[in-house]
Request: fold
Amino acid sequence: MEKKIIFSGIQPSGKLTLGNYLGAVRNWNNLQEEYNCFYCIVDMHAMTQYQEPKDLRKQTMEALAMLLACGLDPDKNTLFIQSHVPAHAEAAWVMSCMTYFGELSRMTQFKDKSAKQSENINAGLFTYPVLMAVDILLYQTHLVPVGSDQKQHIELTRDVAERFNNRYSETFVIPEPYIAKVGAKIMSLQEPEKKMSKSDENENANIYLLDPPEVIRKKFKRAVTDSIGIVQIADDQPGIRNLISIYSVCKNMTEEEVAKAFEGKGYGDFKSAVAEAVIEVLSPVQEKFHALMSDKEYLEKVYQEGALKAENVARKTLRKIYKKVGFIPRS
Ligand code: ATP
Ligand code: LTN
Reply:
């Protein structure tokens, strides 16, 4: 039987965070044997926020090295850079003519980001979900492993794909989101009602995957909690709840087990334990990352081969799309 297809993307819009790792990349590792996986560094999506060209180049290479350091094997997965496969941009135009203004206006990521960058509410920020839908649909994807913040975008992808299938005939597989039970939404360490996000300007809010141990310890020490003083799972303790979920994913325990293990302990002890658990998970990743970054040739080989593999699949779907909508094939 053919393997099912997985597609996911990550923006090179800054340094990768613990949220990206626990919510997304870490789970991608467990899928590489059973599925045919495509993982894309979505540099075109990252442009919806202004990026200095030299930073974008650096962040793109770092994101690729980070995916490898986190354990993705380029022989088992297709790892590639979005702008290397022009079919994404080409199909996005067609699909944007099948997506309604009203649908895009309802996207919470658009609303959040427009509020954050009110001086740069560009058309790309608005049509971002169309490009994301195309990323997914070009590969005839069955499952999309993401953090829970992306669920709405996947619902839109399904709606647009169904619309196309109904209008023109069966063309796309309708994808499903694949969201982990724990770790799907890691919150900011400073404002625990908000998700941890790599584009957050407050460095203390995020744990970056490359933070050295002393920085990780310091950031957890400063993490915002509450004055209740009990380590327990409670809605009015979002800071503690976030730390419990971080610890539980790092240690492979349920949240209830974590709360039980720290019963009667103070926040200081708990925060140090969380910091050590995170350091233990990140140390081997950091070591591999640094080794990979000093081997540019290898990284180039990975993205070049990845682009060829991705292009083959994407071109086929694009050809189908063009034909079905009535574009005349050039030859
Ligand atoms: P930006 O701040 O630029 O929007 P981001 O940190 O939200 O970036 P993305 O590159 O957009 O990260 O997301 C990559 C993957 O990481 C997605 O699957 C997303 O759902 C997941 N992810 C991002 N932040 C978190 C988080 N705080 N908790 C769990 N998963 C997350
Ligand atoms: N929108 C996603 C990144 C992304 C993506 C995708 C995820 C772009 N294309 C395709 C899954 C599938 C984000 O902001 N995290």
User: Anything to note?
Assistant: The chain has a mean pLDDT of 96.
